[in-house]
Amino acid sequence: xxxxxxxxxILSLLSLLLLLFxxxxxxxxxxxxxxxxxxxxxxxxxxxRRQPDDDDVESxxxxxxxxxxxxxxxxxxxxYTTFRQRYIVNVKHWGGGxxxxxxxxxxxxxxxxxxxxxxxxxxFLTENAPHFKALLLYIEHRYYGESVPFGSWExxxxxxxxxxxxxxxxxxxDYAAVILHVKRTHSAGNSPVIVVGGSYGGMxxxxxxxxxxxxxxxxxxxxxxxxxxxxxxxxxxxxxIVSKDFKEASESCYKTIRKSWVEIERVASKxxxxxxxxxxxxxxxxxxxxxxxxxxxxxxxxxxxxxxxxPDYPVGIVCSAIDGAPNDDVxxxxxxxxxxxxxxxxxxxxxxxxxxxxxxxxxxxWQMCSELVFPIGHDGGDDTxxxxxxxxxxSFTKICRSRFGxxxxxxxxxxxxxxxxxxxxxxxxxxxxxxxxxxxxxxxxGGVLENISDSxxxxxxxxxxxxxxxxxxxxxxxxxxINQRKxxxxxxxxxxxxYYIDLVQFKLLPSS
Length: 512
Ligand SMILES: *[C@@H]1O[C@H](CO)[C@@H](O)[C@H](O)[C@H]1NC(C)=O
Ligand SMILES: *[C@@H]1O[C@H](CO)[C@@H](O)[C@H](O)[C@H]1NC(C)=O
Ligand SMILES: *[C@@H]1O[C@H](CO)[C@@H](O)[C@H](O)[C@H]1NC(C)=O
What we know:
Residues 1-32 form the signal peptide. GO terms for molecular function: dipeptidyl-peptidase activity; serine-type exopeptidase activity. Keywords: Glycoprotein, Hydrolase, Protease, Signal. This is Lysosomal Pro-X carboxypeptidase. It is a single chain. By secondary structure, the protein is of the alpha/beta class. The chain has a domain at 62-230 and 415-505: Alpha/Beta hydrolase fold, catalytic domain (Rossmann fold, 3-Layer(aba) Sandwich), CATH 3.40.50.1820. Helices cover 39% and strands 11% of the residues. It contains 17 helices and 10 strands. Strand 7, helix 6 and strand 8 (218-222) form a beta-alpha-beta unit. The longest helix has 30 residues, at 479-508. 49% of the residues are buried. One 2-acetamido-2-deoxy-beta-D-glucopyranose binds at residues 450-451, 457-458.
């Protein structure tokens, strides 16, 4: 999730999962694109692939379906309708393979995508299952992957009435029901539950600990921008970090990008300007407006920053190419950056607005148009490489009205979950949440970066990126990343030790 804005307009929300998802276009007058916030890395050819070491890790997972209640929050007859919610269990290491009772359960909260992506990418659970002797549970988010109500995506997405059950509160109630179901079916009533999530899933994990403390003992919320709402943190935060990342990688690269926006407009204003630009950037179809090119570049820089991580450090790759090209041709330099990032290709899909949005992208757009209103925009100023185009709720509302027939509720997240004066609100009330962040991740600008109490702890790394800590580890991982993960394990270990003492004291002690 992230919002892009461009001079002529507006804002476009994105999140940079895969460029593929960035392509939904909206009817005039508002041009915008929505996409998502995600843990999974873009498939830029320049980026390393993460694979679990253990090739047959998949065979340890068993898939189940739970008859989930459509609407947890009222008792009208239609609320009792159910749908099949997918969840995946791995008991290989649970209790050390023996009969040990009360061993923990690690739960991964699905986000705006298919749950199997988590099995491929999220190493935190599989790698730590032996250490905790944990049962692993992965739950798919409603309206994504196979966990779609009304029998099909076509039916579920038909209108605002059928999409109306897609809310974070419903999703968390689903997770609560599935966790309790799994505890029942595994006779694990006293097993402590640690919930883990990244990105939007991290937001859900932290909120879940606050709303369901009787179900989750603690939460690891990786790169969870829970403060990016309702003016708690500035809307320009996202892009100020993208700019910072580029400036730190190379001052001259940053300056070249900063200059390029005007240069694009200058060339476009010539006779055949759009054809010249199309040739220059080898676009697969002829450019029809400069917005598409600028938006493409905006997304590329944002994505490189969001996932700027070892061993490749994509921001460095883009900047080396920009700095390495002849410096009398700004657009040639920019194009060299595109090629370096995207790989050599016969053409670049700059304006493929014909592709319909993928179901997951549409569902995520719905969530952003209803409750998850991220006011991400270009606030302008001296230390940005983007032209000013702040978030504009009016245009955003117009887009949401025309796309879904609904009006965004930008105050709901802070009303329902909090966010303003978080420390004041939580430091005595709440406990057992880790907020982890990588400060190169633009979303860290909406993250919790300070310790709130002894057990609500911020674990940040200066050079980290989006949800890096919960991904499958790699041999090339630097010490700071290894240490971040170690800190998280130690903290969770402390929560568990305390829990087992409490369990004996409050529950298992024979009552006299
Ligand atoms: C779930 O619902 C399906 C269809 O309504 C039904 O056939 C199945 O028995 C249900 N499963 C459980 C465990 O209740
Ligand atoms: C929060 O506290 C932990 C120790 O419990 C410490 O390692 C960490 O550096 C602190 N974070 C901040 C941002 O001060
Ligand atoms: C972060 O990265 C920069 C540039 O690559 C490097 O100079 C710095 O030492 C790193 N900082 C840490 C804490 O690893």
